[in-house]
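User: My instructor asked us to take a sequence, write out its structure as tokens, and then describe one feature of it. I'm not sure where to start. Here is the sequence I was given:
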Amino acid sequence: MAVEEAKTTSKTDSAGPVIEVLIVDNDEAHAEVVAESLDRVGFHCKVATSGPQGSELIEDGAFDVIITDLVMHNVDGLGILARAKEALPDCEVILMTGHGTVPSAVEAMQKGAFNYLLKPLNIEQLRTIAEKAAESSRLRRANVELNRRLDEKYGFEGVVGDSAQMRDVIERLKRIAPTNATVLIQGETGTGKELVAQSIHQNSPRKSKPFVALNCAALSENILESELFGHVKGAFTDASTDRVGKFEYAHGGTMFLDEVGDMPLPTQIKLLRVLENGEITRVGSNQPVKVNVRVLSATNRNLEDAIAAGTFRSDLYHRLKVVSIRLPTLCERSQDIPVLIDHFMRQFAQQHGKQIRGMTPAARRKLMGYDWPGNVRQLRNVVESMVVVDYDGLLDVDDLPEELAEPAEPVAELAPGTLAALVGRPLEEIERLFITETLRLTGGNREEAARMLEIGERTLYRKIKGYELS
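Assistant: Let's start with the prediction itself. The structure tokens for your sequence are:
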């Protein structure tokens, strides 16, 4: 059936975003009265004078609120409700009904309708309920947007990298996240172990529950046990009240134990009991407490060496390592450095309110040539520092922090004899050598290589083809 021309009335709400309302009613005059009464208080109303027309508008439109008559030919109010829930899950539906169909309206509310109005309508009641429905729709959309931002920050999109190593990590995360398996995340300091743990939680069925992180290396044995399991009043000198530990607080969610390799042996025994029985006992108490917590842990130590040295329990190691993930160092994934630079530039430009156009090739060469002992965390801090101190919108070598700002040495000093060896050789041979080395430096990233060589990408592609470079 062709869509009939929909009548539209409009008025902008100066106090906030316009509320889009669809009114569906076989009685055209009644629909117009409803539209006009809402239009006067700032709603933007569209009218459909049949169920089929209303259904087609739902498929094509974006409405905050739908007000529909319950009794209509072809497609009734329940049909409109069903289509709205399918096509516009954030939209609220209000039913208009006579006294004789109230039981049907109540049934519709059980199926997801926001409310119902009795005919003849009370205009003030109509406006009040429509405003409440619009507010409910706005809150639902705000919650969806919040979850989207969390997914962007902590979801797999937040694990930045396009190298083969990081693609393997992300693929592994996608398989691990939906399960309840314990995960041991291994990698050097600064490789992003907590970010990976947050990503696993945020993409798991536990995402709406707490994510609780604790650094096991930062606390003494007694304080660590109190933090993990809580304590009762009088358990030790400063225990003036009962205290809930991290495990109880994380009930239903995820517990992330960072630097678990530094956990004292007595605490390891108690953690093993939690993993085996799902129970914790507060310090100073004999009463076990049931907890449902997924445990993720991380370490930069070799736990097998720690087991051999007698500082880490073998049984705990195997309980923590049902699944393991190893994060590569930044040197191992140097191909990702250009992507990470751009990611951090955007992130910190927004965070610090700076207008950053980009980074000069000279500065990029500095960052690409550095060995990054502090891994991604160090690169992140360097880019943030550059964004903060920059004054002209283009990050350059003068914005680099001290550890990277040393003046470049002459080529002859860096590699004695190299410059002399190049003298007298054909320019094409030298150009081929420099392009090859730059591609190696960027991990084969042609876009980044062109930027560093300060030539166009097409020019670089032609030279790669001409020199038969892989």
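For the description part of your assignment, you could build on this observation: DSSP finds 20 helices and 15 strands in the chain. Try explaining in your own words what that tells you about the chain.
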